[in-house]
């Protein structure tokens, strides 16, 4: 796939390098020459330019990219103009990093197909893990739903998924189980699967129901 990453701060730099390592074609763009020089060895192409200029973007052929990621740090105006011009150039998918909820609303209004808020997401994930040690990972989905990795509470150990009946009790689906002993992952486990203390449950559900499960699992 073809990606363009605009803004080579810590977030943009790591996104660009990781995409390139996964054998994608990556165009990296920043107005700072030092950042561009620093990333040259880790991407397909690196360009020093002002992305808040529609002619610059058009000249680079960004409309041919599968995805453009906009991560311009504190430069809110520049990120808004960049997203607007990308939208006008009919870029298929525009992912923009937001600095605040208001910034996110503006980015969506001017054409971002997806807005990410790394600081907020990381804060929520950290708070959830700290408030409930059983939550190992948290991935937000559409509003009100998420996927979580859950270390099984003691009351789950030795019971089958049929006995736990999480779907009927909480509206929660166990979509996979990571087994450490033996080292494997089981997708869509059967109702007869018996939970071990070394297992990790990957569960999908409404956040309020996941919170109810977590609170009850502590007792």
Topology:
Elements lengths: L1 E5 L3 H12 L3 E6 L2 H7 L5 E4 L5 H7 L6 E4 L5 H13 L5 E4 L3 H10 L3 E3 L1 H14 L3 E6 L4 E6 L10 H4 L1 H5 L2 E7 L4 E4 L11 E8 H12 L1
Parallel strand pairs: 1-2, 1-4, 2-3, 4-5, 5-6
Antiparallel strand pairs: 7-8, 8-11, 9-10, 9-11
Q: Which whole number gives the mean pLDDT? A: 86
CATH class of the largest domain: Alpha Beta
Give the DSSP E fraction (strand runs of 2 or more residues).
25-35%
What is the gyration radius calculated from CA atoms? Answer: 21 Å
> What is the first-to-last residue Cα distance?
48 Å
Along the chain, the helix and strand elements come as EHEHEHEHEHEHEEHHEEEH
Strand order of the largest sheet: 3-2-1-4-5-6
Summarize the amount of helix as a percent range: 25-40%
CATH topology assignment of the largest domain = Rossmann fold
Q: What is the domain tally?
A: 2
Count, helices: 9
Largest sheet: 6 strands, parallel
The assigned CATH architecture of the largest domain is: 3-Layer(aba) Sandwich
Fourth CATH level, the homologous superfamily of the largest domain:
NAD(P)-binding Rossmann-like Domain
**Helix/strand-derived class?**
alpha/beta
- Anisotropy-based shape: elongated
Low-confidence stretches: none
Number of strands: 11
Structure description:
This protein has 219 residues and is an alpha/beta fold. It has 2 domains: 2-116, 3-Layer(aba) Sandwich (Rossmann fold); 121-218, Regulator of K+ conductance, C-terminal domain (Alpha-Beta Plaits, 2-Layer Sandwich), CATH 3.30.70. It has helices at 10-21, 33-39, 54-60, 76-88, 101-110, 118-131, 161-164, 166-170, 207-218; strands at residues 2-6, 25-30, 45-48, 67-70, 94-97, 114-116, 135-140, 145-150, 173-179, 184-187, 199-206. Strand 5, helix 5 and strand 6 form a beta-alpha-beta unit. The radius of gyration is 21 Å and the shape is elongated. The mean pLDDT is 86.
